[in-house]
Amino acid sequence: MNVLKDEDLQAFVDGALDEGRLAEVEALLAQHPEKAEKVRVYRQLDEGLRALYDPVLEEPVPERLLVRPRPWRQQPWARAALAAGLVAIGVGIGWFGRGAMLVPGAAASLARQAAVAHAVYAPEVRHPVEVGANEQDHLVRWLSKKLGTDLKTPRLGDFGYDLVGGRLLSGPSGPVAHFMYQDKRGGRLTLYVTAQRDTRQTAFRFSQESGVSVFYWIEGRYGYALSGELPREQLLAIANTVYQELNP
Questions:
Q1: Mean pLDDT of all residues in the chain?
Q2: CATH number of the domain that 135 lies in?
Q3: Residue 131 half-sphere exposure, CB side, CA atoms within 13 Å?
Q4: In 3D, which of 96, 114, 98 has the Cα closest to residue 173?
Q5: Cβ atoms of 138 and 163 closer than 8 Å
Q6: Are residues 237 and 120 in the same domain?
Q7: Are 219 and 203 spatial neighbours (Cβ–Cβ below 8 Å)?
Q8: Per-residue pLDDT averaged across 181-192, rounded?
Q9: Which of 41, 76, 97 is the last residue of a domain?
Q10: How many of the other CB atoms lie within 10 Å of CB of 151?
């Protein structure tokens, strides 16, 4: 097999290839620098995810979870819970039958995805973006086509930030437009835009993931998240401007 697929690259990064295929992939990567670049990006994403979530794996199990509970059938609420559960299942089947589903925690998931993307790409020196600000019109048209909407790049000069450029990412709900801004000191902000399955509108929400502050919201069919290593109040002021620029 002399074709490199994305699943080959991901398995290569995960160390999941057998020796024979590993040798083939290594040889092909040497011949295809664009595939080698993808491997580098996959590894960065993996490192970003580990940096954010590995500490959670090391947290001690709460004592309340170490206490062995009574068998559930002996609990006084067991029969009532079982009955309620059966009713819930029936309601759920009816709801799914309507062809609609609400995605719990979709907005919070948006914040985590944006924080990971920021943690991976904001420190980049050589390849922070795919398309630079010198090709802004092309960048906006390209990402707008991928996401199926008319995107804009907010002007953040009043806060000392200029557009660096952007890139196309892949997210759980489909393509992601990822714009990056930088101030004179090298501080960076990123704007993460993606379609959302749960299209209920949300007000601004704040999250912090491993030092990355995120203000995020859902407007119409799309979710937006502004990330940076800034105090909450300062990032909120910029997020308000971003919102106004996107919704004149």
A1: 77
A2: 3.30.200.100
A3: 16
A4: 114
A5: no
A6: yes
A7: no
A8: 96
A9: 97
A10: 20
Q: Give the type of residue at 123.
A: P
Of 97, 116, 139, the one marking the end of a domain is 97
Residue 183 scores a pLDDT above 70: yes
Q: Is 24 helix (H, G, I), strand (E, B) or coil?
A: helix
Q: Report how many helices (DSSP H) and strands (DSSP E) the chain contains, helices first.
A: 8, 7
Strand order in the sheet with 222-228: 131-132, 162-171, 174-182, 188-195, 222-228, 212-219, 205-209
pLDDT class for 137, splitting at 50, 70, 90? Answer: very high
Number of domains in the chain: 2
- In tens, the pLDDT along 35-94 reads 888 778 777 766 666 665 555 545 554 554 445 445 444 454 444 554 444 444 443 433
CA atoms within 13 Å, Cβ hemisphere of 137 = 0
CA 117/CA 119 separation, integer angstroms: 6
pLDDT at 101 over 70: no
Residue type, 189: L
Helix intervals (H) in 98-231: 106-121, 136-147
CA torsion, points 15, 18, 19, 25, in degrees to nearest 10? Answer: -70
Length of the chain: 248
Give yes or no: residues 77 and 59 share one domain.
yes
* Distant-in-sequence, close-in-space partners of 128: CB < 8 Å, separation ≥ 6: 121, 122, 164, 165, 180, 188
